[in-house]
Amino acid sequence: GGNLYFLNDDVMTMPVDADSLPAEPLIDNHGTIYYGLAVDPYNGDIYVADAVDYVQDGTVCRYTRFGEFVGSFRVGITPGAFCFKYDD
């Protein structure tokens, strides 16, 4: 979609043709340990995995493509990968 999303403590985004790095994060980490990141190719929602302490179950937070919080849910230990499946 023309944007690059990456973790640098926070969730950062920038156009792929930008000349410089973003000055402000799209999503602040709020003291969490972001471990995984994915963008839903269908609607642009952003999923961020929080590893918590790498021992207990983690959390995945979902945001709109504009960085607005949608919700969160618990997942297994050290979440770091995402898969999107759509029915035709």
What can you tell me about this protein's structure?
The relative contact order is 0.20. This protein has 88 residues and is mainly β. The chain has strands at residues 3-8, 10-15, 34-39, 46-50, 57-63, 69-77. The strands form two sheets. Strands 3-4-5-6 form a four-stranded antiparallel beta sheet, with no helix packed on it. It has a two-stranded antiparallel ribbon with strand order 1-2.
Q: What is the fold's blueprint, element by element?
A:
Layout: E1 3-8, E2 10-15, E3 34-39, E4 46-50, E5 57-63, E6 69-77
Task: Quickly list its features.
single chain; 88 residues; mainly beta; four-stranded antiparallel sheet; two-stranded antiparallel sheet
Gist of the model:
With 88 residues, this protein is mainly beta. The protein has strands at 3-8, 10-15, 34-39, 46-50, 57-63, 69-77.
Shape: globular
If you compute it from the alpha carbons, what radius of gyration comes out, rounded to the nearest whole angstrom?
A: 13 Å
Secondary-structure element pattern, one letter each: EEEEEE
- Number of beta strands: 6
Fraction in helix: under 10%
Number of helices: 0
Structure classification: mainly beta
How far apart are the first and last residues' alpha carbons, in Å?
Answer: 21 Å
Strand coverage percent: 35-45%
| Biggest sheet: strand arrangement | 3-4-5-6
Q: Main sheet? A: 4 strands, antiparallel
